[in-house]
């Protein structure tokens, strides 16, 4: 799985686990909703500093955004 897709799935997974809308997450984290959408779709290439801000806004660790197993599992469930 492409690293951008993996990060995107994990951001979406963590956001959904916390029951936060994309709009609210964007507002709370200080990012534009379109940017967050791009990260979740794997079309953005966020810097490590952006990943740190996203993880912090999700009350998670940056390593949670890189977890390949959780990303693959979530992508299979969510696509159905």
Overview of the structural elements:
This protein has 80 residues and is mainly α. Helix content is 71%, strand content 0%. The chain has one domain: lambda repressor-like DNA-binding domains (434 Repressor (Amino-terminal Domain)). It has helices spanning 3-17, 22-29, 33-41, 48-57, 62-65, 68-78. The radius of gyration is 11 Å and the shape is globular. The model has no long low-confidence stretch (mean pLDDT 95).
Bin the strand percentage.
Answer: under 5%
The ordered string of helix (H) and strand (E) elements is HHHHHH
| Model regions low in confidence, pLDDT < 50 over at least 5 residues | none
CATH architecture type: Orthogonal Bundle
> Which percent bin holds the helix content?
over 70%
Full CATH superfamily name: lambda repressor-like DNA-binding domains
Q: What number of structural domains do the residues give? A: 1
Determine the mean pLDDT.
95
**Form type:** globular
Task: Give the C-level CATH assignment.
Answer: Mainly Alpha
Helix count, DSSP H or I runs of 4 or more residues: 6
The strand count comes to 0
Report how far the terminal alpha carbons are from each other: 18 Å
Largest sheet: none
At CATH level 3, the topology is 434 Repressor (Amino-terminal Domain)
